[in-house]
Amino acid sequence: MAPGARGYGALTPPSPHGVRAAVGRVLRVGVIASAALLVGGYLVGIVSDPATFGSVALERAHLSARASFPHSLAAVWGGIGRGSGEAIIVAGVLLLILTPVAGLVTSAVAFARRRDFLFSAISAAVLTVILGSFLIGWLTP
Amino acid sequence: MNIAELSLVLLGISVLAGVLGSLLGLGGGFVIVPVLTLVFHLDIRLAIGTSIVAVAATSSAGAARNVSESITNLRVATFLAMATTIGAVTGALLSGVFDARFLFGLFGVVLGLSGLQMLRKRPGRPAEEPGPASGGTIRAPLDWVTAAGGTVPSVAAMGVSRNVVAPAGGGGGLADRLALHSAYYDRAEGSEVPYVVAHTGLGLALMYMAGTVSGLLGIGSGVLKVPAMDLAMHIPMKVSTATSNLLIGLTAAASAVVYFARGDIDPLIAGPVAIGVLLGATQGSKLLLGIRSDRLRVLFVIVLLVVAAQMLWKGIG
After folding, report:
1. Model-level pTM?
2. CA distance B36 to B43
3. A79 touches chain B (CB under 8 A)
4. Looking at the predicted complex, does its ipTM rise above 0.85?
5. Rounded distance between C-alpha atoms, residue A67 and residue A61, angstroms
6. How far apart are CA A107 and CA A19, in angstroms?
7. How far is B204 from chain A (nearest CA, A)?
Protein backbone atom coordinates (compact mmCIF):
# COMPACT_ATOMS: atom_id res chain seq x y z
CA MET A 1 0.00 0.00 0.00
CA ALA A 2 1.28 3.46 -0.85
CA PRO A 3 2.44 5.54 2.09
CA GLY A 4 -0.28 8.12 1.47
CA ALA A 5 -3.07 5.62 1.84
CA ARG A 6 -1.85 3.98 5.02
CA GLY A 7 -4.05 4.16 8.03
CA TYR A 8 -6.86 6.31 6.68
CA GLY A 9 -9.40 3.59 6.15
CA ALA A 10 -12.46 5.77 6.55
CA LEU A 11 -10.78 8.86 5.17
CA THR A 12 -9.38 7.36 2.01
CA PRO A 13 -11.57 4.80 0.46
CA PRO A 14 -11.08 7.46 -2.27
CA SER A 15 -8.85 6.10 -4.88
CA PRO A 16 -7.96 2.70 -3.57
CA HIS A 17 -4.42 1.72 -4.26
CA GLY A 18 -5.55 -0.80 -6.87
CA VAL A 19 -7.25 1.85 -9.00
CA ARG A 20 -4.30 4.21 -8.79
CA ALA A 21 -1.82 1.46 -9.57
CA ALA A 22 -3.83 0.34 -12.59
CA VAL A 23 -4.14 3.88 -13.96
CA GLY A 24 -0.47 4.59 -13.29
CA ARG A 25 0.53 1.40 -15.11
CA VAL A 26 -1.53 2.25 -18.20
CA LEU A 27 -0.06 5.77 -18.30
CA ARG A 28 3.48 4.40 -18.01
CA VAL A 29 2.94 1.88 -20.80
CA GLY A 30 1.46 4.63 -23.02
CA VAL A 31 4.38 6.95 -22.33
CA ILE A 32 7.03 4.32 -22.99
CA ALA A 33 5.34 3.05 -26.16
CA SER A 34 4.88 6.54 -27.61
CA ALA A 35 8.45 7.52 -26.70
CA ALA A 36 9.65 4.43 -28.57
CA LEU A 37 7.62 5.43 -31.65
CA LEU A 38 8.84 9.05 -31.48
CA VAL A 39 12.51 8.13 -31.23
CA GLY A 40 12.18 5.20 -33.64
CA GLY A 41 10.37 7.33 -36.21
CA TYR A 42 13.10 9.93 -36.00
CA LEU A 43 15.83 7.36 -36.55
CA VAL A 44 13.93 5.78 -39.45
CA GLY A 45 13.44 9.23 -40.97
CA ILE A 46 17.11 10.17 -40.77
CA VAL A 47 18.09 6.93 -42.51
CA SER A 48 15.34 6.68 -45.12
CA ASP A 49 14.46 10.31 -45.82
CA PRO A 50 17.55 12.45 -45.17
CA ALA A 51 16.23 15.12 -47.57
CA THR A 52 13.35 15.98 -45.26
CA PHE A 53 14.98 15.20 -41.94
CA GLY A 54 18.21 16.96 -42.84
CA SER A 55 16.85 20.11 -44.42
CA VAL A 56 15.73 23.37 -42.95
CA ALA A 57 12.37 22.17 -41.73
CA LEU A 58 11.18 25.53 -40.53
CA GLU A 59 11.26 26.89 -44.07
CA ARG A 60 8.85 24.19 -44.99
CA ALA A 61 6.69 24.98 -42.00
CA HIS A 62 6.48 28.61 -43.10
CA LEU A 63 5.75 27.96 -46.71
CA SER A 64 3.28 25.13 -46.56
CA ALA A 65 -0.15 26.67 -46.74
CA ARG A 66 -1.56 23.19 -46.40
CA ALA A 67 0.31 20.64 -44.35
CA SER A 68 2.42 18.19 -46.32
CA PHE A 69 2.86 15.85 -43.39
CA PRO A 70 0.36 13.10 -42.50
CA HIS A 71 -2.69 14.45 -40.71
CA SER A 72 -5.34 11.82 -41.21
CA LEU A 73 -5.51 8.30 -39.84
CA ALA A 74 -5.36 6.87 -43.35
CA ALA A 75 -2.23 8.87 -44.17
CA VAL A 76 -0.57 7.79 -40.92
CA TRP A 77 -1.47 4.15 -41.47
CA GLY A 78 -0.34 4.22 -45.11
CA GLY A 79 2.86 6.03 -44.13
CA ILE A 80 3.73 3.43 -41.53
CA GLY A 81 3.23 0.77 -44.20
CA ARG A 82 5.77 2.55 -46.41
CA GLY A 83 8.17 2.92 -43.50
CA SER A 84 7.83 6.72 -43.36
CA GLY A 85 9.60 8.23 -40.36
CA GLU A 86 7.14 11.12 -40.26
CA ALA A 87 4.16 8.79 -40.09
CA ILE A 88 5.75 6.79 -37.25
CA ILE A 89 6.36 10.03 -35.31
CA VAL A 90 2.75 11.11 -35.84
CA ALA A 91 1.61 7.69 -34.58
CA GLY A 92 3.70 8.29 -31.45
CA VAL A 93 2.11 11.72 -31.02
CA LEU A 94 -1.40 10.27 -31.40
CA LEU A 95 -0.62 7.54 -28.88
CA LEU A 96 0.60 10.21 -26.48
CA ILE A 97 -2.63 12.18 -26.91
CA LEU A 98 -4.70 9.05 -26.30
CA THR A 99 -2.74 7.94 -23.23
CA PRO A 100 -4.70 10.06 -20.70
CA VAL A 101 -7.92 8.79 -22.32
CA ALA A 102 -6.69 5.21 -21.85
CA GLY A 103 -6.07 6.08 -18.20
CA LEU A 104 -9.68 7.24 -17.95
CA VAL A 105 -10.99 4.00 -19.46
CA THR A 106 -8.88 2.11 -16.94
CA SER A 107 -10.24 4.09 -14.01
CA ALA A 108 -13.84 3.57 -15.21
CA VAL A 109 -13.26 -0.19 -15.24
CA ALA A 110 -11.21 -0.26 -12.03
CA PHE A 111 -13.78 1.77 -10.07
CA ALA A 112 -16.55 -0.52 -11.33
CA ARG A 113 -14.64 -3.62 -10.25
CA ARG A 114 -14.48 -2.14 -6.77
CA ARG A 115 -18.23 -1.52 -6.90
CA ASP A 116 -17.71 2.22 -6.82
CA PHE A 117 -20.32 2.71 -9.50
CA LEU A 118 -20.67 6.47 -8.95
CA PHE A 119 -17.06 7.11 -9.91
CA SER A 120 -17.20 4.54 -12.65
CA ALA A 121 -20.15 6.47 -14.09
CA ILE A 122 -18.35 9.81 -13.68
CA SER A 123 -15.32 8.41 -15.53
CA ALA A 124 -17.61 7.14 -18.27
CA ALA A 125 -19.32 10.54 -18.52
CA VAL A 126 -15.97 12.30 -18.96
CA LEU A 127 -15.02 9.71 -21.55
CA THR A 128 -18.25 10.38 -23.45
CA VAL A 129 -17.54 14.12 -23.54
CA ILE A 130 -14.02 13.51 -24.85
CA LEU A 131 -15.16 11.01 -27.48
CA GLY A 132 -17.92 13.47 -28.48
CA SER A 133 -15.34 16.19 -28.97
CA PHE A 134 -13.20 13.77 -31.01
CA LEU A 135 -16.24 13.33 -33.23
CA ILE A 136 -16.86 17.07 -33.52
CA GLY A 137 -13.18 17.56 -34.30
CA TRP A 138 -13.21 14.93 -36.99
CA LEU A 139 -16.42 16.07 -38.65
CA THR A 140 -15.61 19.79 -38.69
CA PRO A 141 -11.98 20.17 -39.69
CA MET B 1 20.02 26.36 -38.71
CA ASN B 2 19.61 22.82 -39.95
CA ILE B 3 17.15 20.33 -38.62
CA ALA B 4 19.64 18.60 -36.35
CA GLU B 5 20.58 21.86 -34.60
CA LEU B 6 16.96 22.88 -34.51
CA SER B 7 15.99 19.55 -32.96
CA LEU B 8 18.62 19.93 -30.24
CA VAL B 9 17.43 23.43 -29.37
CA LEU B 10 13.82 22.24 -29.38
CA LEU B 11 14.78 19.30 -27.20
CA GLY B 12 16.47 21.55 -24.64
CA ILE B 13 13.56 23.99 -24.47
CA SER B 14 11.09 21.13 -24.15
CA VAL B 15 12.98 19.48 -21.32
CA LEU B 16 12.68 22.77 -19.44
CA ALA B 17 8.98 23.03 -20.33
CA GLY B 18 8.43 19.44 -19.18
CA VAL B 19 10.15 19.93 -15.82
CA LEU B 20 8.26 23.15 -15.05
CA GLY B 21 5.01 21.80 -16.48
CA SER B 22 4.86 18.59 -14.47
CA LEU B 23 6.10 20.32 -11.32
CA LEU B 24 3.52 23.09 -11.55
CA GLY B 25 0.58 21.28 -13.20
CA LEU B 26 0.85 23.35 -16.37
CA GLY B 27 1.13 22.29 -19.99
CA GLY B 28 4.37 24.05 -20.75
CA GLY B 29 2.80 26.03 -23.60
CA PHE B 30 3.92 29.23 -21.88
CA VAL B 31 7.52 28.24 -22.69
CA ILE B 32 7.00 26.49 -26.01
CA VAL B 33 4.68 28.86 -27.88
CA PRO B 34 6.72 32.05 -27.34
CA VAL B 35 10.00 30.28 -28.18
CA LEU B 36 8.60 28.73 -31.37
CA THR B 37 6.91 31.91 -32.59
CA LEU B 38 9.30 34.63 -31.39
CA VAL B 39 12.66 32.85 -31.72
CA PHE B 40 11.98 30.45 -34.58
CA HIS B 41 9.27 32.55 -36.30
CA LEU B 42 7.12 29.48 -36.64
CA ASP B 43 3.53 29.80 -37.79
CA ILE B 44 1.32 30.31 -34.70
CA ARG B 45 -0.93 27.45 -35.85
CA LEU B 46 1.92 24.94 -35.74
CA ALA B 47 3.19 26.42 -32.48
CA ILE B 48 -0.17 25.85 -30.80
CA GLY B 49 -0.47 22.36 -32.31
CA THR B 50 2.97 21.58 -30.90
CA SER B 51 2.08 22.96 -27.50
CA ILE B 52 -1.02 20.71 -27.35
CA VAL B 53 1.29 17.73 -27.88
CA ALA B 54 3.52 19.08 -25.10
CA VAL B 55 0.50 19.22 -22.78
CA ALA B 56 -0.33 15.57 -23.49
CA ALA B 57 3.31 14.58 -22.90
CA THR B 58 3.60 16.53 -19.63
CA SER B 59 0.34 15.14 -18.37
CA SER B 60 0.98 11.48 -19.12
CA ALA B 61 4.61 11.39 -18.02
CA GLY B 62 3.91 13.37 -14.85
CA ALA B 63 0.73 11.53 -13.89
CA ALA B 64 2.30 8.12 -14.54
CA ARG B 65 4.33 8.61 -11.38
CA ASN B 66 2.10 10.89 -9.34
CA VAL B 67 -1.06 8.80 -9.63
CA SER B 68 0.77 5.77 -8.27
CA GLU B 69 2.40 7.86 -5.53
CA SER B 70 -1.09 9.15 -4.60
CA ILE B 71 -0.03 12.79 -4.87
CA THR B 72 -2.61 13.08 -7.61
CA ASN B 73 -6.13 12.90 -6.21
CA LEU B 74 -7.73 10.64 -8.80
CA ARG B 75 -11.28 11.16 -7.51
CA VAL B 76 -10.98 14.95 -7.54
CA ALA B 77 -9.43 14.80 -11.02
CA THR B 78 -12.18 12.54 -12.39
CA PHE B 79 -14.96 14.61 -10.85
CA LEU B 80 -13.56 17.95 -12.01
CA ALA B 81 -12.78 16.56 -15.47
CA MET B 82 -16.53 16.58 -16.17
CA ALA B 83 -16.45 20.37 -15.89
CA THR B 84 -13.14 21.00 -17.66
CA THR B 85 -13.92 18.82 -20.68
CA ILE B 86 -17.45 20.20 -21.14
CA GLY B 87 -15.92 23.66 -20.71
CA ALA B 88 -13.31 22.92 -23.37
CA VAL B 89 -16.03 21.92 -25.84
CA THR B 90 -18.04 25.05 -24.95
CA GLY B 91 -14.97 27.19 -25.51
CA ALA B 92 -14.20 25.57 -28.86
CA LEU B 93 -17.79 26.12 -30.02
CA LEU B 94 -17.79 29.74 -28.81
CA SER B 95 -14.44 30.61 -30.32
CA GLY B 96 -14.76 33.67 -32.49
CA VAL B 97 -17.81 34.95 -30.59
CA PHE B 98 -15.77 37.08 -28.22
CA ASP B 99 -12.94 39.45 -28.98
CA ALA B 100 -9.80 37.41 -28.26
CA ARG B 101 -7.79 40.51 -27.33
CA PHE B 102 -10.34 41.52 -24.71
CA LEU B 103 -10.32 37.96 -23.30
CA PHE B 104 -6.52 37.84 -23.16
CA GLY B 105 -6.49 41.16 -21.34
CA LEU B 106 -9.22 40.09 -18.94
CA PHE B 107 -7.57 36.79 -18.05
CA GLY B 108 -4.18 38.42 -17.77
CA VAL B 109 -5.69 40.52 -14.99
CA VAL B 110 -7.49 37.54 -13.42
CA LEU B 111 -4.28 35.51 -13.39
CA GLY B 112 -2.26 38.35 -11.94
CA LEU B 113 -4.76 38.77 -9.13
CA SER B 114 -4.90 35.03 -8.37
CA GLY B 115 -1.11 34.99 -8.27
CA LEU B 116 -1.02 37.75 -5.70
CA GLN B 117 -3.79 36.04 -3.72
CA MET B 118 -1.82 32.80 -3.69
CA LEU B 119 1.22 34.55 -2.28
CA ARG B 120 -0.75 35.70 0.72
CA LYS B 121 -1.28 33.07 3.29
CA ARG B 122 -4.98 32.53 3.37
CA PRO B 123 -6.40 33.21 6.79
CA GLY B 124 -8.23 30.19 8.05
CA ARG B 125 -6.75 27.57 5.86
CA PRO B 126 -5.64 24.29 7.30
CA ALA B 127 -1.96 24.18 8.00
CA GLU B 128 -1.17 22.16 4.94
CA GLU B 129 2.38 23.37 4.94
CA PRO B 130 3.66 23.47 8.47
CA GLY B 131 6.97 25.24 8.24
CA PRO B 132 9.97 24.22 10.29
CA ALA B 133 8.61 26.41 13.09
CA SER B 134 5.26 24.68 13.57
CA GLY B 135 6.84 21.40 12.72
CA GLY B 136 4.32 18.95 14.14
CA THR B 137 3.08 15.97 12.24
CA ILE B 138 -0.60 16.05 11.53
CA ARG B 139 -2.07 12.78 12.63
CA ALA B 140 -5.72 12.24 11.98
CA PRO B 141 -7.57 9.87 14.23
CA LEU B 142 -8.68 6.91 12.18
CA ASP B 143 -12.34 7.50 12.76
CA TRP B 144 -12.43 11.22 12.24
CA VAL B 145 -14.67 11.13 9.23
CA THR B 146 -17.06 8.49 10.43
CA ALA B 147 -17.31 10.25 13.78
CA ALA B 148 -18.41 13.41 12.04
CA GLY B 149 -21.27 11.46 10.53
CA GLY B 150 -21.11 12.76 7.00
CA THR B 151 -20.37 16.37 7.85
CA VAL B 152 -17.08 18.08 7.39
CA PRO B 153 -14.79 16.98 10.17
CA SER B 154 -13.72 19.89 12.27
CA VAL B 155 -10.15 20.61 11.54
CA ALA B 156 -9.51 20.85 15.26
CA ALA B 157 -10.01 17.10 15.26
CA MET B 158 -7.03 16.84 12.97
CA GLY B 159 -4.83 18.32 15.61
CA VAL B 160 -4.32 21.54 13.71
CA SER B 161 -4.03 24.35 16.18
CA ARG B 162 -4.54 27.24 13.82
CA ASN B 163 -7.95 28.86 13.53
CA VAL B 164 -9.80 27.32 10.68
CA VAL B 165 -13.00 28.46 9.05
CA ALA B 166 -15.12 25.46 8.18
CA PRO B 167 -15.90 25.29 4.48
CA ALA B 168 -19.12 27.17 3.85
CA GLY B 169 -21.66 26.91 1.11
CA GLY B 170 -22.40 23.20 1.22
CA GLY B 171 -19.41 22.21 -0.91
CA GLY B 172 -18.00 20.29 2.00
CA GLY B 173 -21.06 18.05 2.10
CA LEU B 174 -20.69 17.18 -1.55
CA ALA B 175 -17.01 16.42 -1.04
CA ASP B 176 -18.02 14.10 1.82
CA ARG B 177 -20.53 12.22 -0.29
CA LEU B 178 -18.02 11.84 -3.10
CA ALA B 179 -15.28 10.90 -0.61
CA LEU B 180 -12.90 13.43 -2.12
CA HIS B 181 -10.88 14.04 1.05
CA SER B 182 -7.59 12.25 1.11
CA ALA B 183 -4.03 12.31 2.34
CA TYR B 184 -0.65 12.19 0.73
CA TYR B 185 2.81 11.43 1.94
CA ASP B 186 4.99 14.53 1.77
CA ARG B 187 8.66 13.62 1.46
CA ALA B 188 9.80 17.17 2.15
CA GLU B 189 8.06 17.04 5.51
CA GLY B 190 8.55 13.35 6.09
CA SER B 191 4.93 12.94 7.11
CA GLU B 192 1.48 12.17 5.85
CA VAL B 193 -0.63 15.23 5.14
CA PRO B 194 -4.37 14.66 5.35
CA TYR B 195 -6.58 17.26 3.75
CA VAL B 196 -10.23 18.18 3.49
CA VAL B 197 -11.64 19.27 0.14
CA ALA B 198 -13.88 22.35 0.41
CA HIS B 199 -16.29 24.23 -1.86
CA THR B 200 -16.70 21.42 -4.36
CA GLY B 201 -19.54 23.17 -6.24
CA LEU B 202 -17.55 26.37 -6.58
CA GLY B 203 -14.54 24.34 -7.72
CA LEU B 204 -16.65 22.65 -10.37
CA ALA B 205 -17.90 26.03 -11.65
CA LEU B 206 -14.37 27.44 -11.76
CA MET B 207 -13.16 24.36 -13.62
CA TYR B 208 -15.92 24.81 -16.19
CA MET B 209 -14.74 28.38 -16.70
CA ALA B 210 -11.10 27.27 -16.89
CA GLY B 211 -12.02 24.70 -19.53
CA THR B 212 -14.01 27.26 -21.51
CA VAL B 213 -11.14 29.74 -21.44
CA SER B 214 -8.66 27.12 -22.61
CA GLY B 215 -11.00 26.16 -25.45
CA LEU B 216 -11.58 29.81 -26.40
CA LEU B 217 -7.99 30.97 -26.29
CA GLY B 218 -6.15 27.75 -27.11
CA ILE B 219 -4.12 28.05 -23.93
CA GLY B 220 -3.44 25.35 -21.40
CA SER B 221 -5.67 26.05 -18.44
CA GLY B 222 -3.41 24.71 -15.71
CA VAL B 223 -2.75 28.30 -14.72
CA LEU B 224 -6.45 28.60 -13.87
CA LYS B 225 -6.96 25.08 -12.49
CA VAL B 226 -4.23 25.15 -9.86
CA PRO B 227 -5.42 28.43 -8.25
CA ALA B 228 -9.01 27.12 -8.31
CA MET B 229 -8.00 24.00 -6.39
CA ASP B 230 -5.59 25.83 -4.11
CA LEU B 231 -7.62 28.96 -3.33
CA ALA B 232 -11.22 27.76 -3.59
CA MET B 233 -11.09 24.08 -2.72
CA HIS B 234 -8.28 24.31 -0.13
CA ILE B 235 -6.41 21.41 -1.70
CA PRO B 236 -2.70 21.29 -0.74
CA MET B 237 -0.38 22.86 -3.29
CA LYS B 238 1.34 19.64 -4.34
CA VAL B 239 -1.93 17.81 -4.77
CA SER B 240 -3.32 20.77 -6.74
CA THR B 241 -0.46 20.81 -9.24
CA ALA B 242 -0.38 17.01 -9.59
CA THR B 243 -4.16 16.82 -10.03
CA SER B 244 -4.11 19.69 -12.52
CA ASN B 245 -1.40 17.80 -14.37
CA LEU B 246 -3.73 14.85 -14.89
CA LEU B 247 -6.66 17.13 -15.79
CA ILE B 248 -4.84 19.08 -18.51
CA GLY B 249 -4.08 15.84 -20.37
CA LEU B 250 -7.77 14.99 -20.54
CA THR B 251 -8.72 18.51 -21.64
CA ALA B 252 -5.93 18.52 -24.22
CA ALA B 253 -7.01 15.15 -25.64
CA ALA B 254 -10.46 16.61 -26.26
CA SER B 255 -9.05 19.35 -28.49
CA ALA B 256 -5.88 17.73 -29.85
CA VAL B 257 -7.83 15.70 -32.39
CA VAL B 258 -9.06 18.93 -33.98
CA TYR B 259 -5.49 20.20 -34.31
CA PHE B 260 -4.34 16.88 -35.74
CA ALA B 261 -7.12 16.73 -38.35
CA ARG B 262 -6.43 20.35 -39.33
CA GLY B 263 -2.77 19.52 -39.99
CA ASP B 264 -1.43 21.68 -37.16
CA ILE B 265 0.82 18.98 -35.71
CA ASP B 266 4.08 18.88 -37.67
CA PRO B 267 5.96 15.69 -36.75
CA LEU B 268 9.39 17.25 -37.31
CA ILE B 269 8.64 19.90 -34.69
CA ALA B 270 6.19 18.13 -32.39
CA GLY B 271 8.36 14.97 -32.33
CA PRO B 272 11.50 16.44 -30.72
CA VAL B 273 9.33 18.57 -28.44
CA ALA B 274 7.38 15.53 -27.26
CA ILE B 275 10.57 13.58 -26.53
CA GLY B 276 12.07 16.50 -24.60
CA VAL B 277 8.88 17.09 -22.62
CA LEU B 278 8.60 13.40 -21.73
CA LEU B 279 12.16 13.46 -20.36
CA GLY B 280 11.60 16.73 -18.51
CA ALA B 281 8.20 15.81 -17.11
CA THR B 282 9.51 12.52 -15.76
CA GLN B 283 12.18 14.46 -13.86
CA GLY B 284 9.70 17.15 -12.80
CA SER B 285 7.35 14.63 -11.23
CA LYS B 286 10.30 13.23 -9.26
CA LEU B 287 11.16 16.73 -8.06
CA LEU B 288 7.56 17.30 -7.00
CA LEU B 289 7.82 14.52 -4.42
CA GLY B 290 10.70 16.20 -2.62
CA ILE B 291 10.10 19.93 -3.04
CA ARG B 292 8.79 22.01 -0.12
CA SER B 293 5.24 23.19 -0.68
CA ASP B 294 5.99 26.83 0.13
CA ARG B 295 8.79 26.89 -2.47
CA LEU B 296 6.50 25.21 -4.99
CA ARG B 297 3.92 27.91 -4.33
CA VAL B 298 6.41 30.72 -4.91
CA LEU B 299 7.68 29.09 -8.11
CA PHE B 300 4.11 28.68 -9.32
CA VAL B 301 3.26 32.31 -8.63
CA ILE B 302 6.36 33.49 -10.52
CA VAL B 303 5.36 31.45 -13.57
CA LEU B 304 1.74 32.56 -13.16
CA LEU B 305 2.80 36.21 -13.27
CA VAL B 306 4.92 35.53 -16.38
CA VAL B 307 1.90 33.94 -18.07
CA ALA B 308 -0.30 36.84 -16.92
CA ALA B 309 2.18 39.28 -18.49
CA GLN B 310 2.17 37.26 -21.74
CA MET B 311 -1.62 37.42 -21.86
CA LEU B 312 -1.78 41.12 -21.05
CA TRP B 313 0.77 41.71 -23.79
CA LYS B 314 -1.44 39.84 -26.26
CA GLY B 315 -4.43 41.82 -25.02
CA ILE B 316 -2.68 45.11 -25.68
CA GLY B 317 -0.54 44.15 -28.66
Report:
1. 0.83
2. 8
3. no
4. no
5. 8
6. 6
7. 13
